[in-house]
Amino acid sequence: MASIKEVAEAAGVSTATVSRVLSNGQHVRPEVRQRVMAAVEKLQYRPNLVARSLRSQQSNTIGLIVSDIRNPFFTSISRAVEDLAYAQGFTVLLCNTDEDANKEAIYLQLMRDTNVAGVIFSPTLQTAAKLSQQSLDFPIVIVDRTIADFEADTVLLDNVEAAWRLTTHLIQNGFEKIGAIFGETSSTGLQRQQGYEQALQEHGLPVLPEYIRHTQPRVEAGYMAATALLNLPNPPDALLTSNSLTMEGALQAIRSANLSIPEDIALVGFDETPWTILVQPSITIIAQPTYEIGKTAAELLLQRIAEPARPARQIILRGQLNVRESSVPLHDRVIKSVEASG
């Protein structure tokens, strides 16, 4: 790879002149600028963006650290962040942590080393407990998570209300033995469990520890957790999952057990993904405004970069309950069963 010194020699100018041309500096004659750019093209020179940002104390790169890029929730957020960043002249450095606190520490250090302008981050509980504004060298926006005693811009779903609404929907449709699978590594799972328990208590139903499972937000983990619930002596008549990947695993477990949805067990969960509509029966879900979450996070970060001293903001968005076939009321199921047998 060519160096800036080689470009300068080819153009017959100093390295300082090459730097001024590449940074669109003033006081460079048109013919000199043309010679430099011709040398850049001929030698296929690419400037060291990190070194340039360190010298200028400015960067056009923002970091995005997500928990699992395979999760459609974070895929949509990533797209929104990149769309807005590109429109504003920024590039995005994307890192995937797999809900691993060690990887989070590595990527936060990477953000420092590359001198990013700011970071959008969805931390685990372990990392969130250690975050402090003094330890960060860049503006930060938290997505999909809450952090106690930490001043930062935040964008998230009203997780307690969303899980309360999803559980209440099941109860109103006649389901009383509701099992639930929650993520164990983030504040999101804790908040959704809170909403689930509130709905049960408000309707006079017990919160049974054996009906609650905490897992990694993975398909395989969802399968194992759902299988354990289905194998209980008194299994639930409905399952609520707090993540699209664990919901996929739960669906596989139900089918492996040769159970029918919703005749034998109802299934509901979070996130609007294509397969929830395509499968039979279609799945009742809380659709999160994922693109809006990502877009809002990127807007907040760019505002924070421009105005570092402004007060922190927390933006809470509301999910949409999309009722489908997987949670048909018990009464309707009885009628359909009678009609089929008659």
UniProtKB/TrEMBL annotation:
Gene3D superfamilies the record matches: 3.40.50.2300, lambda repressor-like DNA-binding domains (1.10.260.40)
CDD domains: HTH_LacI (cd01392), PBP1_EndR-like (cd19977)
Key words of the record: DNA-binding, Transcription, Transcription regulation
Single GO MF descriptor: transcription cis-regulatory region binding
Residue ranges annotated for the HTH lacI-type domain, each copy included: 2-56
Signal peptide: none
Classification via InterPro entries: HTH_LacI, Lambda_DNA-bd_dom_sf, Peripla_BP/Lac1_sug-bd_dom, Peripla_BP_I
A Pfam family reported for this protein in Swiss-Prot or TrEMBL: Peripla_BP_1
Protein name (record): LacI family transcriptional regulator
Organism, as annotated: Dictyobacter kobayashii
